[in-house]
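User: Before I run my own analysis I want an independent prediction to cross-check against. Here's the chain; please return only the structure tokens and, at the end, one sentence I can use as a sanity check.
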Amino acid sequence: MPDLETVLVAAPTFVVAYTVFAMVGFGTTLISAPIVAQVVPLPTLIPAQSLLDLAASAGNGLRLGSKVAKAEVLRLLPAMMLGLIAGAYLLIIVPLAALMVLLGAFVVLYALRGMLTQPRRRPLRPGWAWWYGFAGGILSAMFGAGAWLYAIYLTRRIDDPTAIRASQTSLIAISAVVRVVLFAVAGKYSDWQVVGLSLVLLPAMVLGVFIGNRIAHKLDRTRFLRALYLVLLGTGGALLVRGVISA
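Assistant: Structure tokens:
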């Protein structure tokens, strides 16, 4: 079971992370990993968070199932599956310090992209599903953070916001199921550190989703995302520095 220091760092962070998830549809690991990785190794954190992601996305997936754009989801799925397998393998074999550097760099670049670029609405060709699906699968397995790539693809293929949200939720749920299965096959859930972390942080996940659903329609999304990018820039930068020092 996690010690008191780990719980004091991870629990409030997970509340915030799943509040963000309930509001914008993704972002749990982007928020939690740069902070919680300071006290929990990524090979322990990512399988534990995959279990919680599965639980958090399952409810919304069932509720919005009728709105899913099935054709777009089916385009993304084959490449996403390949990416998940490749990412799970990399998570197991890549050294811890290198993982911290990769995650820190990824979060910093994601934050900078969100702060410095404007969303593009020009439609994508269907063939781009292979790139977005594969890259998103790798990032999902390694860091639990590939859903933003699915969101980019879906927003440039679908006009209905509800269909975008429903399709993204279904992809996150499917991704979480595959990640959990892959980590189970790799023996990650025979490690009681992983299982214990998931159980201890389950209430934080539930509370975060509850809060996020309550305030989702009351907060200006643009300002919220700007603040989120600033937080990500700071936490990702700190993790990047720590990973470089540890290497």
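Sanity check: The chain has one domain: 4-246.
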